[in-house]
Design goal:
single chain, 75 residues, mainly alpha, 434 Repressor (Amino-terminal Domain), 67% helix
């Protein structure tokens, strides 16, 4: 599985855990909802700066999101 998809899944899991909508996350990082959707779907690479913004907006360390991304996606 591609790292983009695994990272996107980790973002989505954390966002849902916090009960934050894609729109709210987008607002927090200065993007639009479609961008967040594409990140979560693993359709785009994010920069380290954006990954850090996402992590901060989701109240988690970037390292934690990356570690979650190393695990296979659970069905």
């Amino acid at each position: 599985m591609e790292i983009k998809k695994r990272f996107g899944f980790a973002v989505k899991e954390q966002r849902k855990k916090l009960n934050v909508s894609q729109e709210e996350l987008a607002m927090r990082i200065g993007a639009d909802q479609a961008y967040v959707s594409r990140v979560e779907a693993g359709q785009i690479n994010v920069t380290l700066e954006t990954a850090e913004l996402i992590a901060t907006a989701l109240s988690v360390e970037l390292a934690e999101l990356v570690l979650r991304s190393e695990s296979p996606i659970r069905s």
